Amino acid sequence: MELFRDFFEPGYGAELLSRWGHYLAGVTWIGLLYYFNFVQTPAFAEMTAESRSEALRKITWRALWWFRFGALLTLLTGLMILGFQKNLGSDFSTYFQTVPGTSIAFGAIVGITMFTNVWVIIWPAQKIVIGSAERVAAGGEADPRAATVAKPAARASRANTLMSIPMLFFMAFTTHGVDLFRDTGEIGGDTLLVAWIVFVVVLAAIEGAALGWFGGYDGPLAKVFFDDHKMTIMWGFVAWVVLYFVAFEAIIA
Ligand code: HEM
After folding, report:
1. Domains in the chain: how many in total?
2. Which residues, at least 6 apart from 61, have a Cβ–Cβ distance to it below 8 Å?
3. What is the pLDDT of residues 99-111, one digit of tens each?
4. What is the rounded distance in angstroms from the CA atom of residue 94 to the CA atom of residue 105?
5. How far is the C-alpha of 23 from the C-alpha of 8, rounded, in Å?
């Protein structure tokens, strides 16, 4: 069977099946992320406290299961692709100095930041918020922590929405866009360093704003990036313009 020929070699069956799993898991994760940001949050703002509580306990709870395990499977399958390509092993240092290697490094680091936001900020906060709704529904007292954890979780969720836009570009660009670049060999050390500085500045601005580094969760940058989901989408494209046109077109190419 063709699928199993040279199964574990780069470009063969194991890598292909990992890519398939990566698409399925990624669609599940990012689809639910967009549902939370574009559908659930505005809808919750219009609902009564009772309806919101019921929706949290019946809908959000279930959605969060698929969301967080979708994120986990996306990460694992992404690392599997890199592993089967041998880019985490013998080819590590050469691969990550090329255009495709730099592209997937940018995409994967943004993806891993998003994964960390899910498991370290969003999910623990939602557990408290939904647990509190359960207690109130059963006639008990609300958990006082629910009010304080909601904002950091909302900011992290918006940051993930923003970052998903350039992240997905770099996922695709790695294999389907490198032919645009005439020189696909190793990039010079200084050039690569400058491109990486641009990347770190962009990532720190977005993630730092979500973590409240610049004047708290309602600091100016956080408000501009995250208050309105349409602005979040717009800033996602701005981040892409800087990462692609500055780091790749102006610096690397
Ligand atoms: C969480 C960390 C992530 C890692 C480590 C990761 C890793 C990778 C790797 C190694 C590739 C293969 C690049 C190549 O050589 O063509 C890839 C491609 C891709 N990834 Fe990710 N990824 C992550 C997150 C995501 C997310 C959240 C999505 C959202 C849907 C996603 C969607 C894709 C897509 C569509 C491709 C293109 C595959 C292709 O061109 O065949 N990835 N990713």
Report:
1. 1
2. 130
3. 999 999 999 999 9
4. 13
5. 19
Q: What's the whole-model pTM score?
A: 0.96
Query: In this predicted model, what pLDDT tens digit does every residue of 189-246 receive, in sequence order?
Result: 899 999 999 999 999 999 999 999 999 999 999 999 999 999 999 999 999 999 999 9
| Domain span holding position 232 | 2-252
Which amino acid, residue 144? P
DSSP state at residue 128: H
Letter for the amino acid at 203?
L
Residue 94 CA to residue 185 CA, distance in Å, equals 9
pLDDT at 182: 75
Instruction: Give residue 65's identity as a one-letter amino acid code.
Output: W
Cα–Cα dist 84/162, whole Å: 29
Query: Which H or E run includes 74?
Result: helix 61-84
146 C-alpha to ligand 1 centroid (Å): 34
The number of the ligand 1 atom at minimal distance from the alpha carbon of 100 is 15
Contact (Cβ atoms closer than 8 angstroms) between residue 32 and residue 70 = yes
CB of 99 shorter than 6 A to ligand 1: no
Q: Is 102 in the pocket of ligand 1 (CB under 6 A)?
A: no
